[in-house]
Predict the structure.
Amino acid sequence: MLHILIVDDNPSDRLLIIRELEREFSGFQVAEILDASAFAEALATEIFDMAIIDYQLRWSNGLEVLRAVKSRFPDCPVIMFTNTGNEEIAVEAMKAGLDDYIIKSPRHYVRLAVAVQGVLKRVAAQKQVVRLENRLQSLLDRLNVGVFSCTVNGRLLESNQAFLRLLELENLQQAQLVDLRDLFRTSLDLDTAQTKEISLPKADGLLKWVLLTQYFNTTSEGETIIDGLLEDITSLKQAEIALRQLNETLEMRVSSRTAELEDVNAQLEAFAYSVSHDLRAPLRAIESFAQILLTDYASNLDATGLDFLQRIEGSAALMNTLIENLLDYSRLSRSNLPIEPVDLSLIVAEANTQLGEEIRSKKAVIAFEPLPHVLAHSATLLRVVVNLLSNALKFVAPGVEPRIRIWAQEVEEPPRRRDSARLVGETETTRTELDTMTKWIHLRIEDNGIGIAQEYHQRIFGVFERLHGVEVYPGTGIGLAIARKGVERMGGRIGVESALGQGSRFRIEFRKYEP
Ligand code: ADP
């Protein structure tokens, strides 16, 4: 309940005051003071929301009473209600903290309650402001982010504790001696980027990383100031640096491993090449002696002996083909394959010519539309297409006439950096230039053959990988390995889409040639 101190010697005036207050307030309590000792006791023992005082008192005067109230309760509003005061007294009283001054005359009585109401509201608003300010300050001080404001000349105006802590400064006074422009190595002007990462040397010699964010504001006086935030990002920065270093070592390790692998691979391929090469001489001897036996000594052998001899000759011939194919495969890794624009239509036409005999004997039909130009090595590309086409002609169910369709599709793709093989003679520059090209041609060769089960889609591209016996479908199992190596050496890719019994669709991808 509102507790009001009334200091007035005149009983009818006190009554008047109470009556006027009753008009405005429903419930309140008053302490009526008649002499010095009652006043002293009231100040000592009670708390008031408001004081209404007269100026002329038998035992004191309004100014002294005002000062006494304010010194005891600085926030307690005081209204002087008097008919003995004058302008000088009013001014003096205002300086001492008086909240309102009302002349005690019938004309002004009604103003009293209104003034009390107004003063109370103002005091409540002030308290609210103070409370909010305190709350804001305690939040700012508890915050781990430095909050500050400074002039555009870098002089600190105010800051929270975190700001001082971050900069290892003792207090605001010490901080105000620092030119923040020097400290942040930034001009703090309107052109400067709003957010900046800064490294600051710490007392222990290590670096502290902070993120500075600036906003420009104008004060009510029209002065431009900077409001700023300062965050400690040292651990973030350290993690970033550690990650970068880790990445670098990782990349170094990957490239040295790759180099080692390439080296081992090259050695293996060289070994395979020389073994295959060396196998040819004894094989030729076996073939020649078998031939001599067949021509000159056939009459000395019975039917079984002859059969064995023919089998030796057949196996030797197969082995010869195997060795030839292996050598072809090895050569593909070693030889230089200069890349140039190649007309896919011409390549497919040439492959058709080479396979003409087979196409006719199998009554095969090969359909193809005009095809675009790609970047490839012409002879290798022809070899790949011939291998794929001859497989499409070969792997059909008995009695089925091969139906083959060839078409190309343009595909836009982001640069392939990691998975495209380096071309022979290709330098980093040409590689980068080529990598920025995003148009690829996917050439597809689709057949109506026996199809390939999903689990073999990768395996069939390996050396000697075959899914059928030689008696059913003859072959050496190296055609697709050659196709893959060739395509990859030309910077492309190869793959298959197929399901058992549903035909196959082989796909080779090349960079499109754009004149
Ligand atoms: P080869 O044709 O000498 O057997 P390849 O390396 O060309 O060897 O092919 C490997 C294997 O992949 C073949 O033995 C066959 O099982 C399977 N294959 C290849 N092309 C096709 C195709 N068009 N349809 C069905 N299977 C195929």
Observations:
- The chain has a mean pLDDT of 89.
- The longest strand covers residues 207-218.
- Residues 101 and 189 are 49 Å apart (CA to CA).
- The two ends are 94 Å apart (CA to CA).
